């Protein structure tokens, strides 16, 4: 099946076949990353703009590195150095980037829906690198890619996502991908951060950590943001940790072969104990590595490349 | 001015329970029982066969942005949009810049109305100074300056004590208080209804409980003080139920619904189109149905548009950053006919009543009927004509409408104010 999308805005809109295509393409690129020369000429002569209007370390660097591994030229703009600080609108900023002959724009923005808004304005592909609490599609793709590497098919597998679901774009993208892939997803956390509305997305919602973690094959932790405490979503970080933090005892409730994931950045000692974050069940750094291959796949496909052509890109 | 003779119309005047095929006579700007033979000869005759003649529509909730935000709308352009929608009397909100919290600002607004408006525009004043919710505005002076009601619309008085005092004080002047019901502590940063759709879209939700709590507060204050409180743009099922119970007990509360809350739900936000962003937000299908039922059984007293113009460039941004509000005046009648008459099987005279007599009654306007001797404010419309609404070609200075490009059924043909044609066949006269 040929790849037909120009933009990557959400995982909600992707079919299972499209997710599989991205994963297959990422697998091919991952092999290239294992070579001594880790670069292919697939996007030589193309210019990609990283427009990050919200702080980011690993996503921005991973996109940057993925584009460079494909031989594209990369320009990075952040909120502080762009004209948005002078009051320029997002439309004007984006139209200027397009007028400068960029071939693709990767956007991170604190406002949900911003990538869709840009995709309706611009003629060049728009890649969503995280929009508000809406979606973070490449994170969802790299997370499921990593799960597949460890578990094979995700059909019928029990996956738990634990933490601040309400404000998490990572959770939403993972929910869309995982449910399409046939996984059984359970969301866990305090009721204030895991509202019942999520059941409408085809997942279970639980506030009982023990029963949720029992026999889970994947537990994905989400960062607890300090500002949620001041907005009344939970009483204190200490209380959160005592009720929902993943420690050695609680990890023992998981399936013995379960993997522990986290999209980062980690609050050590809050949502997860250090020994677990660094332990042999943790695949947190594998997620980061896989992020490059998955993003290479997304950039390549949305630039017009086709999955079956990856092997010939070099 | 020659007499006017509207012939062969279906005349619907809910105030006098008239619904019959016949003629309307206008002499000296007023409704007449008939014309003399000589006047009949000289009268301007309008053949209204197939059309409905009803009292000029009344909207007790519009934003005309003057003074201070005249790039969005002016009293002149807003009044033209109103005339094009069949409205002859509108009540404009005080959240201008500066806000209308002094007699001087009210006078400024009244001067502009006199100079530029083609219909009747009535100002309101603020409940609190600067609409800051801290101290009472000079409500007596505002009444003397000509306001027909007071409201902090766009905002909501959060202090129960201050609201109680405002209600008591305004009652002394027989001045209605209108309230935008929103508990701020529950809606910080909220941009749409809280629920399944906000969860999917990752947008901050505005729970209906934040409206229900203030509606309940106002019911309690109206009960306690005996004063009348009008609840603006009700959007939630629970609020409708709270009001229904209050009215059954005889509490002096009234409430309005908007055409957009009876026609649309939060499902329309799936594409983050800012032309569907408003406050209170579009809610669920359950809420929408409950509001329609509230209108049917009289729990909700009237329709009002909350006409809220914003320029294209203000709306053309990320959803979180776009302002709340949509246009309403030019589409209100067609949308309401569609939802209430065609879909919900309301009787047409009942819907006209919601837009005329019942609306006028809430703020005591001299409008909304075709009684002999009443000012000849008339709306003539074709209930069956299909037309495509082009917001950019409309009469408002702005074009932020969810109905832009949509085909609507029911079109205003002519609008009369005191017997004078102010709008006819798509043109302001």
The gyration radius over C-alpha positions of chain B equals 21 Å
**What count of structural domains of chain B?**
2
In total, how many domains does the architecture of chain A comprise?
2
CATH fold naming of the largest domain in chain A: Rossmann fold
Largest sheet of chain B: 9 strands, mixed
Beta-strand proportion of chain A = 5-15%
Uncertain runs of chain A with pLDDT below 50, 5 residues or more? none
Strand content of chain B: 15-25%
Biggest sheet of chain A: strands side by side, in what order? 7-6-5-8-9
What would you call the shape of chain A? globular
**Share of helical residues of chain A:** 25-40%
Instruction: Provide the low-confidence segments of chain B as ranges.
Output: none
* CATH architecture field of the largest domain in chain A: 3-Layer(aba) Sandwich
Q: What structural category arises from helix and sheet content of chain A?
A: alpha/beta
Q: Can you tell me the overall shape of chain B?
A: globular
**Which CATH architecture of the largest domain in chain B?**
Alpha-Beta Barrel
Would you list the SSEs of chain A in sequence order as H and E?
Answer: HEHEHEHEHEHEEHEHHHEHH
User: Remind me, CATH topology of the largest domain in chain B?
Assistant: TIM Barrel
CATH class descriptor name of the largest domain in chain B: Alpha Beta
Give the oligomeric state of the chains in this entry, treating copies of one chain as homo and distinct chains as hetero.
heterodimer
Pfam families (chain A): OTCace (PF00185), OTCace_N (PF02729)
Protein name (chain A): Aspartate carbamoyltransferase
EC number (chain A): 2.1.3.2
Function (chain A): Catalyzes the condensation of carbamoyl phosphate and aspartate to form carbamoyl aspartate and inorganic phosphate, the committed step in the de novo pyrimidine nucleotide biosynthesis pathway.
């Amino acid at each position: 099946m040929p790849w037909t999308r120009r933009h990557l805005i959400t995982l909600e809109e992707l079919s299972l076949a499209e997710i599989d295509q991205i994963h297959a393409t990422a697998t091919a690129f991952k092999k290239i990353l294992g070579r001594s020369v880790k670069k292919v000429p697939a996007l030589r002569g193309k210019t990609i703009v990283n427009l990050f209007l919200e702080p980011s370390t690993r996503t921005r660097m991973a996109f940057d590195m993925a584009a460079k591994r494909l031989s594209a030229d990369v320009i990075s703009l952040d909120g502080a150095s762009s004209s948005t600080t002078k009051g320029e609108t997002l439309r004007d900023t984006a139209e200027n980037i397009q007028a400068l002959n960029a071939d693709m724009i990767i956007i991170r923005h604190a406002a949900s829906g911003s990538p869709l808004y840009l995709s309706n304005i611009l003629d060049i592909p728009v890649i969503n690198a995280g929009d508000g609490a809406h979606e973070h599609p490449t994170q969802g793709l790299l997370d499921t890619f990593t799960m597949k590497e460890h578990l094979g098919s995700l059909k019928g597998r029990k996956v738990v996502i634990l933490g601040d679901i309400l404000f998490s774009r990572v959770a939403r993208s993972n929910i869309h991908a995982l449910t399409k892939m046939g996984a059984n997803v359970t969301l866990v956390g305090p009721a204030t951060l895991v509202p019942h509305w999520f059941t409408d997305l085809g997942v279970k919602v639980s506030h009982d950590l023990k029963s949720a973690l029992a026999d889970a094959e994947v537990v994905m932790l989400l960062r607890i943001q300090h500002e949620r405490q001041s907005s009344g979503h939970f009483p204190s970080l200490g209380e959160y940790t005592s009720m929902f933090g993943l420690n050695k005892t609680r990890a023992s409730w998981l399936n013995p072969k379960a993997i522990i994931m986290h999209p980062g950045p980690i609050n050590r000692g809050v949502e997860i104990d250090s020994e677990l974050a660094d332990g042999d069940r943790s695949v947190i750094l594998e997620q980061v590595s896989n992020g490059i291959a998955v993003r290479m796949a997304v950039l390549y496909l949305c630039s017009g490349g086709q999955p079956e052509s990856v092997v010939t890109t070099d | 001015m020659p007499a006017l003779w509207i012939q062969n119309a279906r005349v619907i005047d809910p105030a006098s329970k008239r619904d019959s095929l016949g003629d309307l006579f206008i002499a000296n700007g007023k409704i007449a029982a008939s014309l003399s033979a000589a006047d009949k000869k000289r009268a301007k005759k309008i053949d209204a066969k197939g059309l409905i003649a009803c009292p000029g529509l009344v909207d007790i909730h519009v934003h005309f942005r003057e003074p201070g935000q005249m790039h969005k709308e002016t009293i002149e352009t807003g009044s033209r949009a109103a005339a094009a929608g069949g409205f002859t009397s509108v009540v404009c909100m005080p959240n201008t810049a500066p806000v209308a919290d002094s007699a001087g600002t009210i006078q400024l607004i009244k001067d502009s109305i006199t100079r530029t408006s083609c219909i009747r525009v009535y100002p309101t004043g603020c409940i609190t100074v600067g609409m800051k919710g801290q101290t009472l505005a000079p409500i007596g002076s505002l009444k003397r300056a000509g306001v027909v009601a007071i409201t902090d619309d766009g905002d909501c008085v959060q202090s129960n004590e201050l609201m109680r005092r405002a209600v008591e004080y305004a009652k002394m002047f027989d001045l209605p208080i209108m309230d935008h019901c929103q508990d701020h502590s529950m809606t910080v940063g909220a941009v749409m209804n809280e629920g399944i759709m906000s969860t999917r879209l990752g947008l901050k939700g505005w729970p209906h409980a934040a409206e229900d709590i203030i509606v309940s507060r106002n019911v309690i204050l109206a009960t306690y003080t005996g004063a009348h409180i009008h609840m603006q743009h009700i959007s939630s099922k629970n609020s409708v139920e709270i009001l229904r119970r209050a009215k059954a007990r005889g509490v002096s509360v009234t409430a309005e619904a908007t055409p957009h809350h009876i026609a649309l739900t939060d499902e329309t936000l799936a594409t983050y189109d800012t032309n569907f962003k408003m406050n209170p937000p579009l809610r669920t299908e359950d809420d929408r149905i409950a509001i329609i039922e509230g209108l049917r059984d009289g729990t909700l007293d009237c329709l009002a548009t909350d006409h809220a113009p914003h320029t294209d460039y203000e709306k053309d941004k990320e959803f979180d950053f776009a302002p709340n509000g949509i246009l309403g005046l030019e589409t209100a009648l067609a949308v309401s006919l569609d939802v209430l008459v065609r879909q919900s099987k309301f009787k047409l005279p009942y819907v006209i009543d919601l837009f005329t007599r019942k609306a006028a009654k809430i703020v005591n306007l001299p409008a909304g009927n075709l009684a002999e001797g009443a000012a000849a404010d008339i709306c003539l419309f074709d209930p069956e004509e299909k037309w495509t609404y082009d917001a950019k070609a409309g009469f408002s200075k702005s074009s932020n409408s969810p109905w832009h490009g949509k085909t609507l059924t029911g079109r205003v043909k002519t609008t009369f104010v005191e017997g004078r044609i102010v709008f006819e066949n798509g043109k302001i006269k």
